[in-house]
C-alpha cells in the first residue's frame, strides 16, 4: 500500500526513459524522491539521473511486476506504451494518471470524440478506413486537409498534407493499412498550449498559455506568455481545466490548441504528461511543469503555477542543434539544457535553450533574435 503524500525517499516509477523522464527525475530529486525508470534502452536520458532502472519492453509481465515491486507510485513520460501494460501495473501500484487517460490520448479518434463530447471544438474530422472513405471525407471536409495515423504519431510523423484531389490516393497508400483520421486544415493565426496539473483532491494549477512555432513538424520555439487577447487566454485556460476535470486527471495535462483567424480556440491534441512546450517553466517559474508533475503524482500540495519571468525556449534538434551547443554555453544569458543522448540523429531533440526576460518584456521578432544570439531561429 502506498500512502499519500509520499514521504521523502519514496520511489516514483516512471515508464519511459526520454528527456521528459530525465527532467521529471531531476525535479523528483529536488523534492527528495528517487526515480526508477522502465525503459527499453540502456543509457536512455532518464536512466543517467535515476536511482534505479528496469530494462524491458513495456509488455513483459515478469519485468512489469519487478518494476512495480520496486516503486511506490507509477507515472509515465511516454505515451506509446501499451495501455494493457499500464493496466497490469495499475493492478499492482497506483498509476497516475490512470490507464483510462492514456487510452484517450493514444488514439486520435478516441481523443477527438472525447474532446467534442466535453463540448470543446476541434478541427472537423472523420475516421478513414478505406480510400473510398477518404474521398468521401475529403469532399465533406474540403481541401486542404491533413491525413494522420490515429496512433503512434509524434513530431509530425505519420501525417500527410492533402492539397489537391490527386494527393489522396498516394497519401492513403503511404499511411495505410494503419487506421487513419482526416482533419480539416486549420488556417491558424497561431498555435498555443496550456499545461495544467491536477491533484487527487481535484485541486488544479494552470500555467499561462504559451505560443508554439513548429519547424518540419517539430516544436521549434515557445514564447511564454502567448501574445493573445485576454479573452482568448481565458478560453484556452478554461478548455484545459475542463479537459483535466473530464479525464479525472491526477498528474499533468498538456493541451495543444489552434487559435484561428476569428480568434476561436480549437484543440489539436492532448498529452497527459510533461510537454516540450512547458520546458521554459524550469527557468521561468519557482515550480516547473516537472515539479508539478511530481507533486501531483506524489500527492503533495500543488502550488500555483507562478511565472516570475517571460521566456523564449528554442529546441536544439539533431546535429544542427548540437553544433550550437558550444556557442550556447559560451553566451551569457542563455540557459542550456542537454539530454545526454549519445547520437545526434536528424530530427532528434537533443536539448533546449531558454532565455528569460523581465515579466512583460518579451521582445518582438528582432529583439528575440538578438536575445537568442547563436540559438536564434
Ligand atoms: P500533431 O502531430 O497533430 O500535433 O501535428 C503537428 C503539427 O502539424 C501541428 O502542431 C500543426 O502545426 C500542424 N497541424 C496538425 N494538424 C493540423 C490541422 N488540422 N490544421 C493545420 N495544421 C495542422
Summary?
This protein is of the alpha+beta class. It contains 13 helices and 17 strands. It has 3 domains: 11-95, 3-Layer(aba) Sandwich (Rossmann fold); 124-184, Dna Ligase, domain 1, CATH 3.30.1490.20; 188-375, D-amino Acid Aminotransferase, Chain A, domain 1 (2-Layer Sandwich).
Which structural traits does this protein have?
about 30% helix; nine-stranded antiparallel sheet; 13 helices; about 30% strand; four-stranded parallel sheet; Dna Ligase, domain 1; about 375 residues; binds adenosine monophosphate; Rossmann fold; alpha+beta; D-amino Acid Aminotransferase, Chain A, domain 1
Topology as H/E string? EHEEHEHHHEHEEHEEEEEHEEHHEHHEEH
Q: Helical content, roughly?
A: 25-40%
What Rg do the Cα atoms give?
20 Å
Report the bound ligands by name, code or SMILES: adenosine monophosphate
* Name of the CATH first level of the largest domain: Alpha Beta
| Total DSSP helices | 13
Which CATH architecture of the largest domain is right? 2-Layer Sandwich
Shape: globular
Q: What is the CATH H-level superfamily of the largest domain?
A: ATP-grasp fold, B domain
Amino acid at each position: 500500500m502506498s500512502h499519500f503524500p509520499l514521504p521523502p525517499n519514496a520511489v516514483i516509477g516512471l515508464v519511459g526513459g526520454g528527456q521528459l523522464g530525465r527532467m521529471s527525475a531531476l525535479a523528483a530529486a529536488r523534492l527528495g524522491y528517487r526515480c526508477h525508470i522502465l525503459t527499453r534502452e540502456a543509457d536512455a536520458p532518464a536512466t543517467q539521473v535515476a536511482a534505479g532502472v528496469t530494462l524491458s519492453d513495456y509488455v513483459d509481465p515478469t519485468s512489469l511486476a519487478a518494476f512495480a515491486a520496486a516503486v511506490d507510485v507509477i507515472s509515465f513520460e511516454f505515451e506509446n506504451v501499451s495501455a494493457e501494460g499500464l493496466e497490469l501495473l495499475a493492478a499492482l501500484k497506483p498509476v497516475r494518471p490512470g490507464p483510462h487517460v492514456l487510452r484517450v490520448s493514444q488514439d486520435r479518434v478516441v481523443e477527438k470524440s472525447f474532446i467534442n463530447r466535453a463540448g470543446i471544438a476541434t478541427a472537423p474530422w472523420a475516421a478513414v478506413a478505406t480510400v473510398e472513405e477518404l474521398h468521401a471525407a475529403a469532399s465533406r471536409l474540403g481541401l486542404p486537409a491533413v491525413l494522420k495515423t490515429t496512433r503512434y504519431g509524434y513530431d509530425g510523423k505519420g501525417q500527410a498534407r492533402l492539397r489537391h484531389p490527386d494527393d489522396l490516393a498516394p497519401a492513403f497508400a503511404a499511411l495505410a493499412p494503419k487506421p487513419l483520421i482526416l482533419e480539416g486544415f486549420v488556417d491558424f493565426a497561431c498555435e498555443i498550449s496550456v499545461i495544467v496539473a491536477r491533484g487527487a483532491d481535484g485541486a488544479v494549477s494552470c500555467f499561462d498559455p504559451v505560443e508554439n512555432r513548429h519547424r518540419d513538424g517539430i516544436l521549434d520555439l515557445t514564447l511564454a506568455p502567448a501574445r493573445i487577447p485576454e479573452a482568448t487566454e481565458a478560453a484556452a485556460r478554461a478548455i484545459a481545466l475542463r479537459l483535466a476535470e473530464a479525464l479525472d486527471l491526477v498528474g499533468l495535462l498538456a493541451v495543444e490548441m489552434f487559435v484561428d483567424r476569428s480568434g476561436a480556440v480549437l484543440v489539436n491534441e492532448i498529452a497527459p504528461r510533461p510537454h516540450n512546450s512547458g520546458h521554459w517553466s524550469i527557468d521561468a517559474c519557482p515550480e516547473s511543469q516537472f515539479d508539478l508533475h511530481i507533486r501531483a503524482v506524489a500527492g503533495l500540495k500543488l502550488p500555483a503555477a507562478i511565472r516570475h519571468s517571460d521566456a523564449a525556449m528554442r529546441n536544439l534538434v539533431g546535429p544542427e542543434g548540437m553544433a550550437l551547443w558550444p556557442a550556447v554555453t559560451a553566451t551569457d544569458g542563455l540557459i542550456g539544457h542537454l539530454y545526454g543522448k549519445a547520437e545526434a540523429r536528424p530530427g532528434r531533440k537533443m536539448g533546449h535553450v531558454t532565455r528569460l526576460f523581465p515579466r512583460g518584456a518579451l521582445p518582438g521578432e528582432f529583439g528575440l533574435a538578438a536575445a537568442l544570439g547563436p540559438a536564434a531561429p
